[in-house]
């Protein structure tokens, strides 16, 4: 049996009871003959409490000090977990991100992992210890400062360590049973996915599914580390994310992996752009210079009568104001008519590698929305994803309709083999 | 102006308000033209809360993990302090014990500092930053594990950094105005000491004065770093501890620096020890082997008629049981009659380098106790200290009587020049 990396989130180690429950599960893996490396997040709301404290002493806390502060959270949970494991009669040692060899760039609050040099972790597990590593943190390569990895940082730590240690699997423990075909809070009949490919998982993650972040899946794909997302409260199998199904996992990939939705974006439309080379470039250069990340971009053919076209894109609501301000400055240079800003939108995405070879998916998707009375405002597609923008009010109904139309509801007997009428 | 090390204890940084107040004081020193290095303890009760958490998950938390856990406390306070300072428009950087180059041995929970390599701190202050360092923690030389320094650890960190950085002074900020001629809670007329020598301060610390611990003063003496103990709540001058008085400090050392008392000890008497070579050695070897630290030791001449003597010693109450058990095992070998254990005692000590050259101090001391009706049970003296053991019930009265007898009460016009009748 090989090495296993397990990652437990803040809700799994929220209190002493939770920590003891996690300790038991870790020890179980060790007893089953695995070498075990555990990555932990900060306990429950610790990080939020530290952020509140920081804001009490300074309205704009500095990046370096903010990171120093936040990393105290994982330090507490990892030391407590190591103690709880020792209390069960097994040896455990905790390591900070720096001690674990998680080397990052110097961008505080959202550092990227540059390298992982897990020599101390390797020695520790080779000596028979369970190694506990602080998630979400590393040390900068140049200045040797403490850094944090930003959102999803602990998952990324776990995957990066799994890659560096050549682990069999990276188990991500969370408070849900795995990845579902849609958000179970919206679609009661949503089904747990047993296996999903890296590619489909990446599309789901960037389309609004929150179980795994894009960044962590991307890392796992690059180093081909299977991820097993599962509940820390039940003993059930969760969702495997990997290149190929393993063991008794379904050999044939479903046509459609799932339906994701996202209500965190807004839509900007630049109305009446002269349809000539360089105008779109000017617009998106202005957006990029203001450091706004955009998602979907749609431009339709121009009206022959006017020679003007409209360009629409979506972006996180929080960045709306910045983007609009940047665009206003280019109005004279680009010569567009007006700007429209709309934050009452939702994005609904259908993801599945099967759609590449199965005609009719798009049609069925649009039919389902139409039958549900949902109007489509923008459309964008990739090889394995179709996304539409609708009114925010329609999102739940739209997701349910699409989920049912593609036979993803739990009642259906079987993962459907879909036959349609041309995409 | 040179470099100043300031140390703030947990009560000074107990909440956001406290941290902001400390930030102002730190910035003041910087504005006065000093390079400033600040050592902080954990906020208020943080350390106790972490200890409670540890005991919830494990009855006997391991040393290594316990240290990892506890060091989270300073990490929080130092990052917050750095933020608060930046908010006042000054540059600050926080450093863990490890980053600050505090190298220790591997004895977890009470590590000793082996070396300080403050390269990063030096660069930081040379670049114009205020450097904030986590007190109480270091990194072990051999295993590179996080260690904590035990009681008084933050004070020791401050003094050690001051020595390594060749600081002008190490300022220890606390919640009292300085070192007093006696415990102000017992002696209302106790006087703040303006200056005291390292030697006298060492004797006071080991005689029960709690403002500075022996360990930190010892370190300061070895490297000749002046300590300034003062309040973080007032702007007053506190007590200077150094080799020689400085500036407008009194040039002549008072004969008596102060009266200390200690009610944390117990007394063990080994009754009827054969008065022949090797018996005392056997007794104290047994005590040492059980890792009990003893304080005063007194042996009187044996009674000529029996050839038997009694040996008494004092030790921390908490170690009484262990010492008695160790002695019981040697009863046959040593051949003593019986053991007496008494934990209702107090130790009262008079400290002052002046007593070496001023006859009559001992007589005045004993007269004062006698006039107060206090019986003396044991006596032990050093060059600059006289200690007696009395009943615990008598301690307050005894301390007050001695304090008055040596003219230490605030009403007296002047630090007395004492003339007695032979010591």
UniProtKB/TrEMBL annotation, chains A, B:
Domain ACT as annotated: residue spans: 268-353
EC number: 2.7.2.4
Alphabetized GO MF terms: aspartate kinase activity; ATP binding
Pathway the protein acts in: Amino-acid biosynthesis; L-methionine biosynthesis via de novo pathway; L-homoserine from L-aspartate: step 1/3; Amino-acid biosynthesis; L-lysine biosynthesis via DAP pathway; (S)-tetrahydrodipicolinate from L-aspartate: step 1/4; Amino-acid biosynthesis; L-threonine biosynthesis; L-threonine from L-aspartate: step 1/5
Record's keyword annotation contains Cytoplasm: no
Positions that bind substrate: 47, 74
One annotated Gene Ontology cellular component of this protein: cytosol
Classification via CDD domains: AAK_AKii-LysC-BS, ACT_AK-LysC-DapG-like_2, ACT_AKii-LysC-BS-like_1
GO biological process per UniProt: diaminopimelate biosynthetic process; homoserine biosynthetic process; lysine biosynthetic process via diaminopimelate; threonine biosynthetic process
Presence of the UniProt keyword Cytoplasm in the record: no
Keywords: Amino-acid biosynthesis, ATP-binding, Diaminopimelate biosynthesis, Kinase, Lysine biosynthesis, Nucleotide-binding, Transferase
InterPro entries, A to Z: AceGlu_kinase-like_sf, ACT-like_dom_sf, ACT_Aspartokinase, ACT_dom, AKii-LysC-BS, Asp/Glu/Uridylate_kinase, Asp_kin_monofn, Asp_kinase
Binding of ATP, residues: 7-10, 174-175, 185, 210-211
Catalytic activity: L-aspartate + ATP = 4-phospho-L-aspartate + ADP
Enzyme class: transferase
NCBIfam families reported for this sequence: asp_kin_monofn (TIGR00656), asp_kinases (TIGR00657), PRK06635.1-1 (NF005153), PRK06635.1-2 (NF005154), PRK06635.1-4 (NF005155)
Protein family: Belongs to the aspartokinase family.
Function of the protein: Catalyzes the phosphorylation of the beta-carboxyl group of aspartic acid with ATP to yield 4-phospho-L-aspartate, which is involved in the branched biosynthetic pathway leading to the biosynthesis of amino acids lysine, threonine, isoleucine and methionine.
Protein's name in the database: Aspartokinase
